[in-house]
């Protein structure tokens, strides 16, 4: 299947700092990328959907100014958690969709201290 | 919004036992996908079912899509510890723009 990578795979940051997570589709062009958040042993919660070159569509209850999403190219999307707080600690997963289907990245574990 | 209900939410069984996970909805889906996710990793696609009544087999895993395309099941025969993980069903919303996920089934197979 197609490959989606995320970087970093885990990050620890101090409260008040910002963290950027990258999501890349390695062998296909992703017209749409999705960002999810997941708590332990729970399902995925969609945060936002982004199409290349346009603004992301955020789900209800997700602060767009806190979770900045950029989808600058057909192979790269970034999620920036601004002014992170301990409650933002979670597992963030991206998913990329193209003509080959929809595939998920390996996730990024964010811990805010 | 199209909802998917998965059951059971948690399942702990002994190696060698059989199990079935259910994914139900009141809405019709054009297709349903089943994923398995291990701790600290992203979901991995196991199968996509498209046709009502379809049955697909993947080694010891059997996936079924309901005739009305509103439900699906995953049956595992002779479960092994390596089957441990979070199993998720998902289906595309009518708009086609995103996937709806079930709540997930956390399976633990004890040796």
How would you describe the overall organization of this protein?
The complex is a heterodimer of chains A (113) and B (111). In chain A, 0% of the residues lie in helices and 56% in strands. Chain A is built from no helices and eleven strands. Chain A starts with a strand and ends with a strand. The N and C termini of chain B lie far apart (40 Å). Helices cover 0% and strands 52% of the residues of chain B. The interface between A and B is medium-sized, with 22 and 17 residues.
List the helices and strands of chain A in order: EEEEEEEEEEE
| Number of helices, where a helix is a run of at least 4 consecutive DSSP H or I residues of chain B | 0
Report the end-to-end length of chain B measured between terminal Cα atoms: 40 Å
Overall mean pLDDT of chain A? 93
Query: In terms of quaternary structure, what is this?
Result: heterodimer
Strand content of chain B: over 45%
Strand-pairing-aware structural class of chain B: mainly beta
Largest sheet of chain B: 6 strands, mixed
Number of helices of chain A: 0
Helical content of chain B stands at: under 10%
**What gyration radius of chain B follows from the Cα positions, in whole Å?**
13 Å
- What shape does the CA trace of chain A take? globular
Radius of gyration of chain A, in Å, reads 13 Å
Largest sheet of chain A: 7 strands, mixed
| Straight-line distance between termini of chain A | 36 Å
Q: Given the C-alpha coordinates, what overall shape of chain B results?
A: globular
